[in-house]
Design brief:
The protein is α+β, with helices and mostly antiparallel strands.
């Protein structure tokens, strides 16, 4: 659909309203459609009578967790969880990466994807996906031939 660029389709990307400017009439219709009982917040009590946390300042001493510390075991579990979430499986072996710079004809081998990505000003996930491309031997950034040793 995107390739044909039909005159009647005002959306730049098929299936997306991104970049489409609604007319004033359309805005008024959309507004009217969400008024009264059609509004998802209609009838909700936001005064705080049903929920004492509404409108309450929870900073500093008012925060229920103020002054409380997690146990050392709990902090270790949180740290391990965050490390795994950010770095993936930390027990997985590193992948060696060889990068050939076409401009200088220098080949460098790195012992991990992270170090290789840092060296060529890229990121881990981009380098990890390079060998899944249709043409994995095509130069990356028009300059580097990246070989991942799995």
């Amino acid at each position: 659909m995107d390739l044909f660029k039909p005159a009647y389709n005002i959306a730049q990307t098929a299936g997306s309203r991104l970049g489409v400017k609604a007319s004033n009439e359309a805005l008024q219709r959309m507004s009217a459609a969400k008024m009264g009982a059609n509004n998802p917040m209609y009838g909700k009590d936001l005064s705080g009578a049903n929920n004492p946390m509404y409108g309450k300042d929870l900073s500093g001493a008012n925060n229920p967790r103020y002054g409380k510390m997690n146990s050392a075991v709990h902090r270790a579990r949180i740290s391990a969880s965050l490390s795994t979430a950010m770095l993936g499986n930390t027990n997985a072996p590193s992948l060696a990466v060889t990068i050939l710079d076409i401009e200088t004809n220098i080949t460098t081998t790195y012992d991990s994807l992270s170090k290789a990505a840092l060296a060529i000003n890229s990121n881990y996930s981009t380098l990890a996906s390079l060998d899944k491309r249709k043409n994995p031997t095509a130069p990356f950034k028009s300059r580097y031939i990246v070989t991942i040793h799995r």
